[in-house]
Specification:
heterotrimer, A alpha/beta, B alpha+beta, C alpha+beta, B: alpha+beta, CPE0013-like fold, 5-stranded mixed sheet, 3-stranded antiparallel sheet, 2 helices, 10 strands, about 15% helix, C: alpha+beta, D-Amino Acid Oxidase, Chain A, domain 2, Arc Repressor Mutant, subunit A, 8-stranded mixed sheet, 5-stranded antiparallel sheet, 13 helices, about 30% helix
Chain lengths: ~425, ~130, ~475
C-alpha cells in the first residue's frame, strides 16, 4: 500500500475508539477525555459527525444539559466544537466493519483504505434505526411513497425534496408529529396522524403545536391497515383496532394520498454488538450494561440509542458522558469495583438501564413503564420509594440512587416497580 | 348581562395533558379551570391572550453541501404570523457558505424578531 | 427484420434469450417493465426444486429434473449465487409418512438421486429448531436456492453481451401478420420479426390472442411471502416443505441464498393478475402454519413482505410448444417448478425454433460468461482490503444493513439498473432490516448522478413510481 491510500488517522493505536459520532459518540468522546484517555478516536460514517441531530431542525434540545432550548443542529454544533477544542480526532466517512474481542477495530474509510486499529477501550454509539412496514406487516401493495419518518425528514430538511404532497402519517411519537408540521410548513397537505395505541406517544407540546395549530386530525386506536397503488401510493385504508391491536377491516375507510410516513418507533442498531456476541436485553434490543455502561465483554462500553431508545437527547448525553468516562478510566487501567446489585424490572417497568448497580456509588437509573399511570409510586425494592404524579410509556423515568439508600441493604437484587399509591 | 364563552386548551406542561378551560368575556378572562398546577394556569392564560410559537424551518441554499439551511426565530413570534412567516421564508435563498447565527431575515414581519441560521453550511467543493 | 422476438423478460424469456444467443441470430427481447425480472420472477421463492416433486408424465416433470441439473454450470458461467442446501419434506403423522414414501418412489422413478427418509431423531439433530412433533421427513440433497432476479439479470446481461437487443419498458399492444412473419407493436414501435417466442408470463394468453392463438387462458394464483430478520440467520439450514396439495407445494421455510429466512408462499386464485397486495389473512395463514413447523419463528421477526402472482394455465401444467399460428411458440403457464425448469425449457424452445425453420449456426465468438458483480460483504478481509485500495468507492458503505458499497451500486447502474428496486435486487442495498430507511436517499443520488437525471426523476420501479418532488419554487 502506498502512503497516499493510507488512512489519515493520527495514531496507530488508541486509548478509546468510539463507534458513531452522533450525540452519544460525541459526548462519550468528551467523557473519555474526562476519564483520562489521551488518544481518542470517533469513527463516523457520514461526511460530518453529529448524527441524526442535523436533520432534527426543530427546537427542544438541551434544556437539561445546556439549560437553554436549542435546535438539533445547534446542539450538534456545540458538541462538535467542544470535541474539536478537546483535540479529539474524528474520522468521518469511515465505517467500523468489525470489532474483535481483543478490541481491535477494523475501520474502512474510502480513500483511507481498510485498517485494524487496536484500542484499549471501545464505546458503541451506533444509535438506532427506524422500524419499517415489515415490522407491523401492513397489508397491501409495495408502491413508492412509503417512507420512514426519518428518511422523509432527511429529504425535507437537508436534501431539499418533499416526500410527497398528500401525506398520511402512522405513529404519534414526536418524530411523526414533528414531520406533520414540517411537511405542512413546506407546502404538503397532511391528512391525518394515526396511532394504534389509545394514547398519543409524543409530547403534548407537539400535539398542540404540530397538529392542533394546523388542524391536523389525530386518530387514536386506529392504524393503517392497507396500502393501495401499484407504482406510487394512491390511497391507504385506515381502520380502528381491536383489543389485540388488529385492524377491524370492515370498519376501515379509505384516504386518497400519495405518501405514507411511518413513525412507528426505533430499534437499537446492534449489528456490531451481535457480531461481538454481547449479551443483549431482549426488551431493549440493546446490550446489557452495568453501572459503568460496560457490556458483557470487558472494555466494550455502550451508550445512547444503541442501548435503549431515549426520548431526550439530553439523557443520551448524560449516559454517554458516563460511558466515555468509564471507558477512559478503563483505558488507563483503572478498574471500578464490580456491581453487586442486579436490578430486576417488576410491575409496570419494562426495563432498567443500567441492568445492575453498585452499593458504593451514586447512579442514575433510566427506565420505561409499560402503561400510563397517575399518582403512583416508584419503588426500589424495600429500600427506597418516590411518589410520581404520572408515568407514561413515551417518557423515560429517571431515578437517582444514592449510596445511603443502600446502606442497610445486603441482598444481591432489587425489584424496580411502579405501582399505584396504596397498592404498594 | 354579558355572556361568557369557554375555550379549551390541551396543557403542554407535562404528559398528563390537562384539559384547560378558559371562561372569557371577549378578550377578558373570567376564570381558568382544569389545571393541575401553576404551569397549566399560566399556559392557559398565555395561550388564550397572546399565543406565540418558535418557528423552525429551512431556506434554500445555493452551492452548499446541503440544499437546505435550517433556520429559527430567535424568539417566539405571535402564532398567527407563523404561516405568513414560513411563506416569506420560502422566497429567500442564501448562498453557501453560511455560518450558524447569521441573520437570514431581520425583524421578521415587523415582530422585532430575527430569523437566524441554526448551523454552518459549507460551500460544495467545485 | 429480426429472426426472433422474445416477449417477456422474466426468467423464461431471459433464459431462452441466453440460450438463443449461442447462435448467429438477430433477436430482440421485449419487456413491459423497465428492467428484466420485474414481474413474477422478482417475487419467486428462489428454489431450484429437487426434481422429485412433479408427477411423472407431466410437462413439468419433463423439464424439472433436467433443468435442476443445469444450474451448477449456469451459476459458474454467469456468476450468480447458487447453493444446493437440500430440502426436507416433513410428515407430522403416520399417514403422512406413507405419502413421503410415495414421493420418494416418484422421485426415484424420475432419476433423482440421494433421496432419503429421515426419522424424527435425525431431523431434530440436523434441524434442531423444527417442531419436536415431527414424525419423519424426506430429504432431498438436490434442492438448491438462488436469487431469481440475479439469474434474470445474468441471463439478460450475458445474452446482451452476445448480441441480444433489449427493448425495456415496451409493453406489446398488438401483433400483426406480415409476409414471412409478424409485426410486434411494442411501446408504440413496430418490430418486424420472423418468429415470436411468447414468454409473457401472466399475459401470455393476451399476447397469444394478439397473434391469433386463442387456445388457452392464464389465470393468476397469488403467493404472499414474508422475509424475516437476520437474527434468524442459520435457524433453519434446509428448505422445509409440508406435504404438497394440488394447488401448491405448501407454505415453506426458505433459507435464502443470503441466509435470510423467508416464509411462504400462500396460493390463492386472484382475478386481477396485477394484484400484488399482501393481506392480513395471508400473513396469518403463513405465520400460523410456520409456527407449527418451526415454533421459534414469529411474526415479530418480519422485516418485509411481498406478493407475486403465478401464471397458471388451464390444466395446471406448462404449455410449451409451437402454436397453430405459424411462427409463434408459446411458453406459458410456467408456474412452479418453472424457475428450476427454465434452462431445460430454454434449450428445448431453441430446438423448436430450429424445427420451425430457423437456421442455427453456432456463433464462433459466443462468450458463455457473465462477470459476477462484486459483493463486498462476501469477500475475505484481505480481498476487501485490496479492492478498497484499488478503488476507494468500494470503501464507502451505502447500505449499512447488508454492507453494500458505493462501488457496487455504481456497478449495478452501469450494468443496467435504472431504478431503486433495480439497485436493490442487484446489490441487496435496501433489502436488509432497515428496508432502505438509511440508504435509499444515497442510492437515489447515485442513480441521479450516473444516469444524469434529477432526483425527482428517479423512480422505485419505473412508470409513475416517483420518490420525491420539488419544494415550491422560490419566488422571483
Amino acid at each position: 500500500m502506498t502512503t497516499a491510500t493510507m488512512p489519515v488517522l493520527k495514531h496507530e493505536a488508541y486509548d478509546v475508539v468510539i463507534v458513531g459520532g452522533g450525540p452519544a459518540g460525541l459526548a462519550a468522546a468528551l467523557g473519555a477525555r474526562e476519564g483520562g484517555a489521551e488518544r481518542i478516536l470517533v469513527v463516523d460514517r457520514e461526511p460530518e459527525a453529529g448524527g441524526i441531530l442535523w436533520q432534527c431542525i426543530h427546537a427542544g434540545f438541551g434544556l437539561h444539559h445546556f439549560k437553554e432550548e436549542l435546535t438539533g443542529p445547534e446542539y450538534a454544533t456545540r458538541f462538535l466544537r467542544m470535541v474539536e477544542e478537546a483535540g479529539i480526532e474524528i474520522a468521518t466517512n469511515s465505517y467500523v466493519l468489525d470489532i474483535a474481542p481483543d478490541r481491535t477495530v477494523t475501520i474502512m474509510s474510502g480513500e483511507g483504505g481498510l485498517r485494524e486499529v487496536p484500542a484499549k477501550a471501545v464505546v458503541l454509539a451506533m444509535g438506532a434505526r427506524e422500524r419499517t412496514r415489515g415490522a407491523i406487516r401492513t397489508a397491501g401493495t409495495r408502491p413508492a411513497g412509503v417512507f420512514t419518518a426519518g428518511l422523509a425528514q432527511k429529504f425535507t430538511n437537508m436534501l431539499g425534496y418533499l416526500p410527497g404532497k398528500r401525506v398520511v402519517i402512522l405513529g404519534s411519537g414526536d418524530i411523526g408529529l414533528i414531520m406533520a408540521r414540517r411537511l405542512t410548513l413546506e407546502g404538503a397537505e397532511v391528512l391525518g396522524v394515526f396511532e394504534i395505541m389509545p394514547y398519543a406517544n409524543g409530547l403534548n407540546r407537539n400535539i398542540v403545536q404540530c397538529l392542533h395549530d394546523f388542524d391536523i386530525p389525530l386518530h387514536l386506536s386506529t392504524t393503517v391497515a392497507e396500502i393501495h397503488g401499484r407504482e406510487r401510493v394512491e390511497a391507504v385504508t385506515v381502520a380502528p383496532v381491536d383489543e389485540n391491536l388488529r385492524p377491524i377491516l370492515d370498519k376501515g375507510w379509505r384516504i386518497e394520498c400519495d405518501t405514507l410516513l411511518l413513525a412507528i418507533g426505533l430499534i437499537p442498531e446492534n449489528e456490531l454488538s451481535q457480531r461481538l456476541n454481547l449479551r443483549l436485553d431482549p426488551v431493549t434490543g440493546g446490550p446489557v450494561v452495568n453501572s459503568a455502561m460496560e457490556t458483557s465483554v470487558d472494555g466494550i462500553f455502550a451508550c445512547g440509542n444503541v442501548v435503549h431508545i431515549h426520548d431526550l437527547v439530553d439523557f443520551v448525553t448524560q449516559e454517554a458522558l458516563l460511558a466515555g468516562r468509564c471507558a477512559g478510566e478503563f483505558a488507563r487501567g483503572q478498574r471500578r469495583p464490580k456491581d453487586n446489585i442486579k436490578l430486576v424490572p417488576g410491575r409496570n417497568v419494562r426495563y432498567t438501564v443500567p441492568h445492575s448497580i453498585s452499593s458504593e456509588r451514586e447512579h442514575t437509573i433510566y427506565m420505561r413503564v409499560r402503561e400510563p399511570m397517575e399518582r403512583c409510586v416508584l419503588r426500589l425494592g424495600e429500600v427506597y420509594q418516590k411518589r410520581l404524579r404520572y408515568v407514561v410509556p413515551g417518557e423515560m423515568v429517571t431515578l437517582k440512587v444514592k449510596p445511603e439508600f443502600l446502606e442497610n441493604f445486603h441482598g444481591d437484587s432489587l425489584l424496580v416497580e411502579v405501582v399505584e399509591r396504596g397498592d404498594a | 348581562m354579558a355572556t361568557t364563552t369557554v375555550t379549551t386548551y390541551l396543557c403542554i406542561g407535562c404528559p398528563l395533558g390537562c384539559r384547560l378551560e378558559v371562561e372569557h368575556d371577549g378578550p377578558d378572562i373570567v376564570e381558568v379551570r382544569g389545571f393541575g398546577c401553576k404551569i397549566g394556569k399560566r399556559f392557559a392564560e398565555q395561550e388564550h391572550t397572546a399565543p406565540t410559537r418558535m418557528v423552525t424551518t429551512t431556506v434554500r441554499v445555493k452551492g452548499g453541501v446541503w440544499a437546505r439551511l435550517p433556520v429559527k426565530t430567535e424568539e417566539p413570534v405571535p402564532k398567527d404570523k407563523v404561516l405568513e412567516l414560513t411563506d416569506l421564508l420560502h422566497t429567500i435563498e442564501v448562498s453557501a457558505p453560511v455560518k450558524m447565527g447569521t441573520v437570514i431575515l431581520e425583524n421578521a414581519l415587523g415582530t422585532g424578531v430575527n430569523v437566524i441560521a441554526t448551523r454552518d453550511v459549507e460551500a460544495r467543493p467545485a | 427484420m429480426y429472426d426472433v422476438t422474445i416477449i417477456g423478460g422474466g426468467i423464461i424469456g431471459t433464459a431462452i434469450a441466453r440460450e438463443l444467443m449461442r447462435y448467429d441470430v438477430r433477436a430482440v427481447l421485449v419487456e413491459k417493465e423497465v428492467e428484466v425480472g420485474f414481474g413474477t420472477s422478482k417475487s419467486n421463492s428462489g428454489i431450484i426444486h429437487g426434481g422429485h416433486h412433479s408427477e411423472p408424465g407431466t410437462i413439468k416433470a419433463k423439464y424439472e429434473w433436467p433443468g435442476n441439473q443445469m444450474w451448477d454450470r449456469l451459476a459458474a458461467e454467469l456468476g450468480f449465487a447458487f447453493k444446493r442446501i437440500g430440502e426436507l419434506t416433513l410428515a407430522f403423522s403416520e399417514e403422512e409418512v406413507d405419502k413421503l414414501l410415495a414421493m420418494k418412489e416418484q422421485g426415484e422413478a424420475l432419476g433423482v438421486p440421494g433421496l432419503e427418509i429421515w426419522d424424527r431423531d435425525r431431523i431434530l439433530r440436523e434441524e434442531p429448531n423444527v417442531s419436536p412433533s415431527v414424525v419423519a421427513g424426506l430429504y432431498a440433497p438436490t434442492t438448491g436456492v438462488i436469487n431469481p432476479y440475479e439469474a434474470c439479470f445474468a441471463f439478460a446481461g450475458n445474452a446482451r453481451k452476445n448480441g441480444l437487443e433489449l427493448a425495456l419498458g415496451r409493453p406489446v399492444s398488438a401483433i400483426e401478420r406480415i409476409p414471412g412473419g409478424f409485426l410486434v407493436i411494442a411501446g408504440g414501435e413496430p418490430i418486424p420479426t420472423r418468429f415470436i417466442v411468447n414468454a409473457a408470463g401472466l399475459f401470455a394468453d393476451e399476447v397469444a390472442r394478439m397473434a391469433g392463438d386463442d387456445t388457452f387462458r392464464i389465470t393468476g394464483r397469488k403467493g404472499e411471502e414474508y422475509l424475516l430478520d437476520k437474527r434468524l440467520q442459520g435457524f433453519v439450514q434446509r428448505l422445509l416443505f409440508p406435504l404438497p396439495t394440488p394447488e401448491s407445494k405448501g407454505i415453506l421455510v426458505i433459507p435464502t441464498y443470503d441466509g435470510t429466512l423467508m416464509v411462504g408462499p400462500t396460493a390463492h386464485a386472484t382475478e386481477d393478475k396485477t394484484d400484488v397486495a399482501t393481506s392480513w389473512a395471508g400473513s396469518d395463514e403463513v405465520f400460523s402454519f410456520v409456527k407449527r413447523v418451526v415454533p421459534g419463528i414469529s411474526e415479530r421477526d418480519c422485516i418485509a413482505q411481498f406478493a407475486g402472482v403465478r401464471a397458471v394455465a388451464d390444466g395446471n401444467d406448462f404449455i410449451i410448444g409451437p402454436s397453430h399460428v405459424e411462427g409463434l411458440i408459446n411458453v406459458a403457464g410456467i408456474q412452479s417448478p418453472g424457475l428450476t425448469a427454465a434452462p431445460a425449457i430454454a434449450v428445448d424452445v431453441v430446438r423448436m425454433l430450429s424445427d420451425l425453420g430457423l437456421e442455427l449456426a453456432e456463433k464462433h465468438d459466443f462468450d458463455p460468461t457473465y462477470k459476477a458483480p462484486v459483493r463486498f460483504n462476501m469477500l475475505p478481509r484481505e480481498e476487501q482490503r485490496r479492492l478498497v485500495a484499488r478503488d476507494p468507492s468500494y470503501g464507502k458503505i451505502v447500505c449499512r444493513c447488508e454492507y453494500v458499497t458505493e462501488g457496487e451500486i455504481r456497478d449495478a447502474i452501469r450494468a443496467g439498473a435504472r431504478t431503486l428496486d433495480g439497485i436493490k435486487f442487484r446489490t441487496r442495498a435496501g433489502m436488509g432490516r432497515c428496508q432502505g430507511g438509511f440508504c435509499s436517499w444515497r442510492s437515489m443520488q447515485l442513480l441521479s448522478e450516473e444516469l444524469g437525471i434529477s432526483m425527482t426523476e428517479v423512480t422505485k420501479k419505473g412508470g409513475n413510481s416517483w420518490l420525491v418532488c420539488e419544494f415550491e419554487e422560490v419566488g422571483s
